[in-house]
């Protein structure tokens, strides 16, 4: 995490910040979806055993 700024962000800094946050959110979504799929297959394998 970054420290908060003492001054308001410029338009370019805000665009970079938003783009990085959006990319981080997509990465978190992908990781969570991967875990959901993994747990689904583990649960299915345990039920079919």
The number of helical segments is 1
Radius of gyration: 19 Å
How far apart are the first and last residues' alpha carbons, in Å? 44 Å
Overall body shape? rod-shaped
Question: Uncertain runs with pLDDT below 50, 5 residues or more?
Answer: none
Got a strand count? 0
Query: Pairing-aware structural class of the strands and helices?
Result: mainly alpha
- Report mean pLDDT, rounded to a whole number: 93
Order of helices and strands: H
Characterize the largest beta sheet: strand count, sense, and whether it forms a barrel.
Answer: none
Taken as a percent bin, the fraction of beta residues is under 5%
Helix content: over 70%
SSE layout and pairing:
Blueprint (H helix, E strand, L loop, with lengths): L10 H38 L1
Which properties best describe this structure?
49 residues, 1 helix, single chain, mainly alpha
Summarize the structure.
It is rod-shaped, with a radius of gyration of 19 Å. It has 49 residues and is an all-alpha fold.
How would you portray this structure in words?
It is built from one helix and no strands. The protein is mostly helical and 49 residues long. It is rod-shaped and about 60 Å long. 0% of the residues are buried.
């Amino acid at each position: 995490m970054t420290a908060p700024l003492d001054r308001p962000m410029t338009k370019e800094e805000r665009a970079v910040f938003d783009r990085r946050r959006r990319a981080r959110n997509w990465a978190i979504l992908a990781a969570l979806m991967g875990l959901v799929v993994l747990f689904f297959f583990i649960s299915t394998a345990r039920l079919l055993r």
